[in-house]
Specification:
2% helix, 60% strand, 11-stranded mixed sheet, Immunoglobulin-like, signal, mainly beta, 383 residues, single chain, PKD domain-containing protein
Amino acid sequence: MKSTNVRRFAAAGVGAAMLTTGLIGLSATPASASTTDWRTPKAFVTAPEATPKHYVGACPATVSFESKIKVRVKGTTKVAYQWLHGDGSKSKVKVVTVRGHGVKTITVKEDATFSRSIRGWQALRVLAPFKATTAKTHFSVACAPKRAKKPAVAKAFVDVENFHGVCTPSRRVMAEGVIRVSRPTSVTYRWIHNGKVVDWGRTKVWGAKKVSYSFAPGRSHRGWVKLDIVHPRRAKGDADSYVVNCVRPGGHHKPGKPHHPRPEHPKPRLPKPAPATTAQVAGISVSPDNSSCVGTKGPRVNFTGRISISGPGTFSYRWTANGVSKSGSMRVNHAGTYPVSFSIDGDPHGSKTYGTVTLEVTSPNASSASESFSFSCPQPKDA
Protein backbone atom coordinates (compact mmCIF):
# COMPACT_ATOMS: atom_id res chain seq x y z
CA MET A 1 0.00 0.00 0.00
CA LYS A 2 3.10 2.16 -0.23
CA SER A 3 4.46 3.90 -3.35
CA THR A 4 7.80 5.59 -3.97
CA ASN A 5 9.22 7.81 -6.68
CA VAL A 6 9.17 6.29 -10.14
CA ARG A 7 12.50 5.25 -11.58
CA ARG A 8 13.15 4.85 -15.27
CA PHE A 9 15.20 2.06 -16.84
CA ALA A 10 16.07 2.08 -20.58
CA ALA A 11 16.71 -1.15 -22.46
CA ALA A 12 19.33 -0.50 -25.15
CA GLY A 13 18.44 -1.43 -28.75
CA VAL A 14 14.79 -2.26 -28.21
CA GLY A 15 13.36 1.19 -27.56
CA ALA A 16 11.46 0.12 -24.44
CA ALA A 17 11.37 1.54 -20.93
CA MET A 18 10.24 0.25 -17.52
CA LEU A 19 9.15 2.46 -14.62
CA THR A 20 8.91 0.69 -11.25
CA THR A 21 8.27 1.39 -7.60
CA GLY A 22 7.64 -0.87 -4.64
CA LEU A 23 4.05 -1.22 -5.78
CA ILE A 24 3.91 0.46 -9.25
CA GLY A 25 5.53 -0.69 -12.51
CA LEU A 26 5.51 1.02 -15.92
CA SER A 27 6.26 -0.59 -19.29
CA ALA A 28 6.14 1.00 -22.75
CA THR A 29 5.15 -0.32 -26.17
CA PRO A 30 7.66 0.05 -29.02
CA ALA A 31 8.11 3.63 -30.22
CA SER A 32 7.03 2.81 -33.77
CA ALA A 33 3.70 1.54 -32.49
CA SER A 34 3.15 4.66 -30.37
CA THR A 35 3.65 6.96 -33.39
CA THR A 36 1.93 5.03 -36.17
CA ASP A 37 -0.87 2.94 -34.58
CA TRP A 38 -3.45 5.69 -33.90
CA ARG A 39 -6.16 3.07 -33.47
CA THR A 40 -4.79 2.33 -29.98
CA PRO A 41 -7.19 3.80 -27.37
CA LYS A 42 -6.04 6.82 -25.40
CA ALA A 43 -6.98 5.18 -22.08
CA PHE A 44 -7.56 1.63 -20.85
CA VAL A 45 -7.65 -0.02 -17.38
CA THR A 46 -7.99 -3.71 -16.42
CA ALA A 47 -9.92 -5.21 -13.53
CA PRO A 48 -7.67 -6.16 -10.59
CA GLU A 49 -6.21 -9.64 -10.32
CA ALA A 50 -6.23 -11.10 -6.79
CA THR A 51 -3.39 -13.41 -5.74
CA PRO A 52 -4.48 -15.70 -4.22
CA LYS A 53 -8.09 -15.29 -5.18
CA HIS A 54 -9.40 -17.88 -2.73
CA TYR A 55 -7.13 -18.45 0.27
CA VAL A 56 -7.51 -21.24 2.83
CA GLY A 57 -4.96 -21.63 5.62
CA ALA A 58 -3.34 -20.00 8.61
CA CYS A 59 -3.98 -16.32 9.28
CA PRO A 60 -3.00 -13.52 9.06
CA ALA A 61 -2.94 -13.88 5.28
CA THR A 62 -1.95 -11.35 2.59
CA VAL A 63 -3.77 -10.95 -0.74
CA SER A 64 -2.09 -8.98 -3.53
CA PHE A 65 -4.12 -6.98 -6.08
CA GLU A 66 -2.72 -5.91 -9.43
CA SER A 67 -4.20 -3.84 -12.22
CA LYS A 68 -2.87 -2.25 -15.44
CA ILE A 69 -3.53 1.30 -16.68
CA LYS A 70 -2.70 2.07 -20.33
CA VAL A 71 -2.42 5.74 -21.38
CA ARG A 72 -1.09 7.63 -24.40
CA VAL A 73 1.72 9.94 -23.33
CA LYS A 74 3.18 12.92 -25.15
CA GLY A 75 5.77 14.55 -22.97
CA THR A 76 4.58 14.34 -19.36
CA THR A 77 1.35 12.84 -18.06
CA LYS A 78 0.16 12.43 -14.47
CA VAL A 79 -1.92 9.36 -13.66
CA ALA A 80 -4.04 9.52 -10.49
CA TYR A 81 -5.89 6.52 -9.06
CA GLN A 82 -7.24 5.00 -5.87
CA TRP A 83 -8.32 1.54 -4.69
CA LEU A 84 -11.92 0.81 -3.74
CA HIS A 85 -12.54 -1.82 -1.02
CA GLY A 86 -15.54 -4.05 -0.43
CA ASP A 87 -16.08 -2.64 3.09
CA GLY A 88 -16.72 0.83 1.63
CA SER A 89 -13.28 2.26 2.39
CA LYS A 90 -10.90 3.79 -0.16
CA SER A 91 -7.15 4.10 -0.35
CA LYS A 92 -5.41 7.45 -0.56
CA VAL A 93 -5.22 9.00 -4.02
CA LYS A 94 -1.89 8.10 -5.59
CA VAL A 95 -0.27 9.99 -8.45
CA VAL A 96 2.32 8.66 -10.86
CA THR A 97 4.13 10.94 -13.32
CA VAL A 98 4.83 9.29 -16.67
CA ARG A 99 7.23 10.82 -19.20
CA GLY A 100 7.90 9.90 -22.80
CA HIS A 101 5.96 9.40 -25.99
CA GLY A 102 3.57 6.72 -27.06
CA VAL A 103 1.34 4.28 -25.25
CA LYS A 104 2.56 3.45 -21.74
CA THR A 105 1.27 0.69 -19.49
CA ILE A 106 1.39 1.25 -15.73
CA THR A 107 1.07 -1.71 -13.36
CA VAL A 108 -0.30 -0.73 -9.97
CA LYS A 109 -0.45 -3.02 -6.93
CA GLU A 110 -1.87 -3.10 -3.43
CA ASP A 111 -1.48 -5.69 -0.66
CA ALA A 112 -4.16 -6.34 1.95
CA THR A 113 -3.61 -8.42 5.09
CA PHE A 114 -6.51 -10.19 6.82
CA SER A 115 -6.46 -11.75 10.27
CA ARG A 116 -9.87 -13.38 9.99
CA SER A 117 -12.06 -15.05 7.37
CA ILE A 118 -13.65 -12.68 4.86
CA ARG A 119 -15.40 -12.50 1.49
CA GLY A 120 -14.87 -9.21 -0.29
CA TRP A 121 -14.03 -7.38 -3.48
CA GLN A 122 -11.54 -4.84 -4.78
CA ALA A 123 -11.76 -2.37 -7.67
CA LEU A 124 -9.55 0.37 -9.14
CA ARG A 125 -10.72 3.91 -9.89
CA VAL A 126 -8.70 6.09 -12.28
CA LEU A 127 -9.12 9.84 -11.63
CA ALA A 128 -6.68 11.32 -14.19
CA PRO A 129 -5.90 11.77 -17.04
CA PHE A 130 -9.27 10.12 -17.55
CA LYS A 131 -11.97 8.81 -15.25
CA ALA A 132 -12.85 5.14 -15.12
CA THR A 133 -13.71 2.43 -12.56
CA THR A 134 -12.97 -1.23 -13.15
CA ALA A 135 -15.27 -4.14 -12.46
CA LYS A 136 -15.16 -5.65 -9.00
CA THR A 137 -12.81 -8.55 -8.40
CA HIS A 138 -14.16 -10.86 -5.73
CA PHE A 139 -11.89 -12.78 -3.36
CA SER A 140 -12.16 -14.82 -0.18
CA VAL A 141 -10.00 -15.66 2.82
CA ALA A 142 -10.82 -18.70 4.97
CA CYS A 143 -8.71 -18.83 8.12
CA ALA A 144 -8.07 -22.34 9.33
CA PRO A 145 -8.62 -22.75 13.07
CA LYS A 146 -5.42 -22.78 15.07
CA ARG A 147 -4.54 -26.15 16.54
CA ALA A 148 -4.62 -25.92 20.28
CA LYS A 149 -1.46 -27.05 21.99
CA LYS A 150 -1.77 -30.16 24.04
CA PRO A 151 -1.56 -29.27 27.72
CA ALA A 152 1.78 -29.95 29.32
CA VAL A 153 1.88 -32.93 31.66
CA ALA A 154 4.52 -33.20 34.40
CA LYS A 155 5.42 -36.13 36.61
CA ALA A 156 7.82 -36.27 39.56
CA PHE A 157 9.98 -39.09 40.87
CA VAL A 158 11.80 -38.83 44.21
CA ASP A 159 14.23 -41.01 46.11
CA VAL A 160 15.44 -40.33 49.66
CA GLU A 161 18.48 -42.14 51.01
CA ASN A 162 18.48 -43.72 54.44
CA PHE A 163 21.04 -42.42 56.92
CA HIS A 164 23.14 -44.33 59.45
CA GLY A 165 25.97 -42.58 61.21
CA VAL A 166 26.96 -39.72 63.47
CA CYS A 167 24.24 -37.05 63.30
CA THR A 168 25.98 -33.68 63.13
CA PRO A 169 24.62 -30.43 61.61
CA SER A 170 27.16 -30.70 58.80
CA ARG A 171 25.90 -34.11 57.69
CA ARG A 172 23.05 -34.07 55.22
CA VAL A 173 20.35 -36.49 54.09
CA MET A 174 19.80 -36.09 50.35
CA ALA A 175 16.46 -36.29 48.54
CA GLU A 176 16.91 -36.50 44.78
CA GLY A 177 14.06 -35.86 42.38
CA VAL A 178 13.46 -35.99 38.65
CA ILE A 179 10.77 -33.95 36.87
CA ARG A 180 9.62 -35.24 33.48
CA VAL A 181 7.36 -33.27 31.10
CA SER A 182 5.45 -34.15 27.93
CA ARG A 183 6.71 -31.00 26.18
CA PRO A 184 9.05 -28.13 27.11
CA THR A 185 7.43 -26.06 29.83
CA SER A 186 8.11 -24.09 33.00
CA VAL A 187 7.53 -26.13 36.14
CA THR A 188 6.83 -24.80 39.62
CA TYR A 189 7.49 -27.32 42.36
CA ARG A 190 7.83 -27.54 46.13
CA TRP A 191 9.42 -29.87 48.65
CA ILE A 192 7.27 -31.12 51.52
CA HIS A 193 9.09 -32.68 54.48
CA ASN A 194 6.95 -34.52 57.01
CA GLY A 195 3.91 -32.42 56.09
CA LYS A 196 5.67 -29.01 56.02
CA VAL A 197 6.60 -27.05 52.89
CA VAL A 198 10.35 -26.51 53.21
CA ASP A 199 11.40 -25.27 49.75
CA TRP A 200 10.09 -23.92 46.45
CA GLY A 201 11.49 -23.79 42.94
CA ARG A 202 10.69 -22.83 39.37
CA THR A 203 12.61 -24.13 36.35
CA LYS A 204 12.32 -24.67 32.62
CA VAL A 205 12.25 -28.36 31.76
CA TRP A 206 13.01 -29.92 28.38
CA GLY A 207 12.21 -33.62 28.68
CA ALA A 208 13.56 -34.25 32.19
CA LYS A 209 15.46 -32.37 34.88
CA LYS A 210 16.99 -33.31 38.21
CA VAL A 211 16.22 -31.35 41.40
CA SER A 212 17.30 -32.00 44.98
CA TYR A 213 16.67 -31.12 48.62
CA SER A 214 18.76 -31.94 51.67
CA PHE A 215 18.29 -31.74 55.42
CA ALA A 216 20.27 -32.40 58.59
CA PRO A 217 19.55 -35.83 60.11
CA GLY A 218 18.99 -34.36 63.61
CA ARG A 219 18.05 -37.47 65.57
CA SER A 220 16.97 -41.04 64.93
CA HIS A 221 13.58 -41.04 63.28
CA ARG A 222 11.50 -42.15 60.33
CA GLY A 223 10.05 -39.67 57.88
CA TRP A 224 9.05 -38.89 54.31
CA VAL A 225 9.76 -36.29 51.66
CA LYS A 226 7.45 -35.35 48.80
CA LEU A 227 8.24 -33.56 45.53
CA ASP A 228 4.98 -31.77 44.69
CA ILE A 229 4.30 -30.20 41.25
CA VAL A 230 2.33 -26.95 41.54
CA HIS A 231 2.38 -26.00 37.83
CA PRO A 232 1.41 -27.19 35.26
CA ARG A 233 -1.97 -28.27 36.54
CA ARG A 234 -1.75 -31.70 34.91
CA ALA A 235 0.93 -33.09 37.16
CA LYS A 236 1.64 -35.90 39.58
CA GLY A 237 3.97 -35.65 42.54
CA ASP A 238 5.90 -38.40 44.30
CA ALA A 239 6.89 -39.19 47.90
CA ASP A 240 9.48 -41.47 49.47
CA SER A 241 10.07 -42.54 53.06
CA TYR A 242 13.40 -42.81 54.85
CA VAL A 243 15.03 -43.91 58.11
CA VAL A 244 17.63 -41.97 60.10
CA ASN A 245 19.65 -44.02 62.58
CA CYS A 246 21.96 -41.80 64.63
CA VAL A 247 24.94 -43.31 66.45
CA ARG A 248 27.48 -41.81 68.83
CA PRO A 249 31.10 -41.54 67.73
CA GLY A 250 32.47 -45.05 68.14
CA GLY A 251 29.33 -46.80 66.87
CA HIS A 252 26.91 -46.55 69.89
CA HIS A 253 23.30 -45.71 69.21
CA LYS A 254 22.31 -42.15 70.03
CA PRO A 255 19.18 -42.17 72.17
CA GLY A 256 16.21 -40.23 71.03
CA LYS A 257 12.49 -40.66 70.70
CA PRO A 258 11.71 -42.09 67.24
CA HIS A 259 9.45 -40.00 65.11
CA HIS A 260 7.01 -41.85 62.85
CA PRO A 261 5.18 -39.37 60.60
CA ARG A 262 2.79 -40.87 58.09
CA PRO A 263 3.31 -39.79 54.50
CA GLU A 264 0.39 -38.45 52.53
CA HIS A 265 1.05 -40.76 49.60
CA PRO A 266 3.78 -43.25 50.41
CA LYS A 267 5.56 -44.59 47.36
CA PRO A 268 5.19 -48.35 46.98
CA ARG A 269 8.46 -50.17 47.11
CA LEU A 270 9.10 -51.99 43.88
CA PRO A 271 10.64 -55.45 44.10
CA LYS A 272 14.30 -55.60 43.27
CA PRO A 273 14.96 -56.99 39.81
CA ALA A 274 16.15 -60.59 39.69
CA PRO A 275 19.89 -60.94 39.16
CA ALA A 276 21.02 -61.67 35.63
CA THR A 277 21.52 -65.30 34.67
CA THR A 278 25.18 -66.37 34.55
CA ALA A 279 26.93 -69.53 33.39
CA GLN A 280 30.37 -70.96 34.11
CA VAL A 281 32.42 -74.04 33.23
CA ALA A 282 32.25 -76.49 36.15
CA GLY A 283 34.76 -79.02 34.81
CA ILE A 284 36.04 -81.17 31.94
CA SER A 285 36.51 -84.97 31.82
CA VAL A 286 38.68 -86.69 29.18
CA SER A 287 38.64 -90.35 28.01
CA PRO A 288 40.32 -92.24 25.11
CA ASP A 289 38.52 -94.39 22.57
CA ASN A 290 40.93 -97.20 21.72
CA SER A 291 38.62 -98.70 19.11
CA SER A 292 40.15 -96.25 16.66
CA CYS A 293 43.64 -97.68 17.21
CA VAL A 294 44.24 -99.15 13.77
CA GLY A 295 47.74 -99.40 12.37
CA THR A 296 49.78 -96.39 13.45
CA LYS A 297 46.78 -94.17 14.18
CA GLY A 298 46.48 -92.79 17.71
CA PRO A 299 43.36 -93.22 19.87
CA ARG A 300 40.27 -91.03 19.48
CA VAL A 301 39.69 -88.73 22.50
CA ASN A 302 36.26 -87.91 23.93
CA PHE A 303 35.60 -84.82 26.12
CA THR A 304 32.65 -84.16 28.40
CA GLY A 305 32.19 -80.71 29.92
CA ARG A 306 29.87 -79.49 32.65
CA ILE A 307 28.38 -76.01 32.51
CA SER A 308 26.52 -74.58 35.53
CA ILE A 309 23.85 -71.90 34.94
CA SER A 310 22.22 -69.81 37.69
CA GLY A 311 18.73 -69.65 36.22
CA PRO A 312 16.55 -70.26 33.18
CA GLY A 313 17.98 -69.01 29.91
CA THR A 314 20.27 -69.84 27.01
CA PHE A 315 24.03 -70.27 27.18
CA SER A 316 26.51 -70.61 24.31
CA TYR A 317 29.81 -72.44 24.40
CA ARG A 318 32.83 -73.36 22.25
CA TRP A 319 35.23 -76.34 22.33
CA THR A 320 38.84 -76.03 21.05
CA ALA A 321 41.46 -78.78 20.86
CA ASN A 322 44.47 -79.33 18.58
CA GLY A 323 43.24 -76.82 16.02
CA VAL A 324 39.72 -78.25 15.93
CA SER A 325 36.78 -76.21 17.28
CA LYS A 326 33.07 -76.71 17.77
CA SER A 327 30.39 -74.23 18.94
CA GLY A 328 26.96 -74.86 20.38
CA SER A 329 24.17 -73.45 22.57
CA MET A 330 21.57 -74.83 24.95
CA ARG A 331 18.33 -73.41 26.35
CA VAL A 332 17.34 -74.53 29.86
CA ASN A 333 14.25 -73.91 31.96
CA HIS A 334 15.87 -73.85 35.40
CA ALA A 335 19.21 -73.53 37.13
CA GLY A 336 21.56 -76.50 37.21
CA THR A 337 24.64 -78.17 35.69
CA TYR A 338 24.37 -79.45 32.13
CA PRO A 339 26.73 -81.69 30.14
CA VAL A 340 28.19 -80.86 26.73
CA SER A 341 30.42 -83.19 24.66
CA PHE A 342 33.16 -83.03 22.06
CA SER A 343 35.68 -85.43 20.47
CA ILE A 344 38.71 -85.41 18.16
CA ASP A 345 40.22 -88.12 16.00
CA GLY A 346 43.53 -89.73 16.89
CA ASP A 347 46.84 -88.67 15.44
CA PRO A 348 47.08 -90.40 12.02
CA HIS A 349 50.90 -90.38 12.14
CA GLY A 350 51.52 -91.88 15.53
CA SER A 351 50.07 -94.12 18.19
CA LYS A 352 49.85 -91.26 20.71
CA THR A 353 47.22 -88.47 20.86
CA TYR A 354 48.01 -85.53 23.13
CA GLY A 355 47.33 -81.78 23.55
CA THR A 356 45.10 -79.34 25.45
CA VAL A 357 41.33 -78.95 25.27
CA THR A 358 39.52 -75.70 26.21
CA LEU A 359 35.81 -75.23 26.93
CA GLU A 360 34.60 -71.60 26.83
CA VAL A 361 31.24 -70.10 27.79
CA THR A 362 30.65 -67.20 25.36
CA SER A 363 27.13 -66.14 26.47
CA PRO A 364 25.48 -64.82 28.66
CA ASN A 365 28.90 -64.12 30.16
CA ALA A 366 32.49 -65.31 29.68
CA SER A 367 33.99 -68.33 31.47
CA SER A 368 36.52 -70.98 30.43
CA ALA A 369 38.49 -74.01 31.61
CA SER A 370 41.30 -76.06 30.02
CA GLU A 371 42.54 -79.62 30.46
CA SER A 372 45.71 -81.34 29.13
CA PHE A 373 45.52 -84.89 27.80
CA SER A 374 47.86 -87.60 26.46
CA PHE A 375 46.78 -91.11 25.41
CA SER A 376 48.55 -93.91 23.57
CA CYS A 377 47.14 -96.98 21.89
CA PRO A 378 47.67 -100.18 23.91
CA GLN A 379 50.54 -102.38 22.85
CA PRO A 380 49.42 -105.61 21.10
CA LYS A 381 49.88 -108.81 23.17
CA ASP A 382 52.50 -111.31 21.99
CA ALA A 383 51.09 -114.35 20.22
